[in-house]
Amino acid sequence: MGNTYTSLYIHYIFSTKERLPLIVPEIQDRLWSYMGGVVRQNNMKALVVGGMPDHVHVLLSLPATLSISKAIQSIKGNSSKWINDTFKTSNPFSWQKGYGAFSVSISILQDTIRYIQNQPVHHRHKSFKNEFIGFLKKNEVVYDERYMWV
């Protein structure tokens, strides 16, 4: 085959360090836009970026040339630097080390977009911890909760 063709949609979920509510309303929209810019600069396509004060959801289309881990490293690294450079605070901003990355079928792409857009409504009834564990279970990911929140 002369060309490479892919359809790779990844739903990333990651939290602020210690899941502190650091993504305050004053920076939230700017942060989502900035992350979208990082995605574009790295030849990815952001379908939606959203979240809550303590965590972020990013749904993107990955090119075949970029690994799942390199994509999130770029998003998290660039955005934390931008936050620290733009919003000078006494405590430096950082993301928690880990993340979740879940493949998304094109058949549920629109449902996933709506899910991310409706985070405030969704989290009226469910904590981030319960949400994330639900994703792990639904996707049959083996985990040990003793090491998840360190």
Detail the topology: elements first, then pairings:
Layout (H helix, E strand, L loop, with lengths): L8 E7 L9 H17 L3 E8 L2 E7 L6 H19 L13 E4 L5 H9 L1 H4 L5 H11 L12
Helix pairs in contact: 1-2
Can you give a write-up of this model?
It is a single chain. This protein is of the alpha+beta class. The protein has a single domain, classed as Transposase IS200-like (Alpha-Beta Plaits), CATH 3.30.70. Helix content is 40%, strand content 17%. It is built from 5 helices and 4 strands; from the N terminus they run βαββαβααα. It has a 4-stranded antiparallel sheet, sandwiched between helices. Strand 2 and strand 3 form a beta hairpin. Helix 1 (25-41) crosses helix 2 (68-86). The radius of gyration is 15 Å and the shape is globular. The model has no long low-confidence stretch (mean pLDDT 94).
Give a brief description:
By secondary structure, this protein is an alpha+beta fold. The chain has five helices and four strands. The protein has helices spanning 25-41, 68-86, 109-117, 119-122, 128-138; strands at residues 9-15, 45-52, 55-61, 100-103.
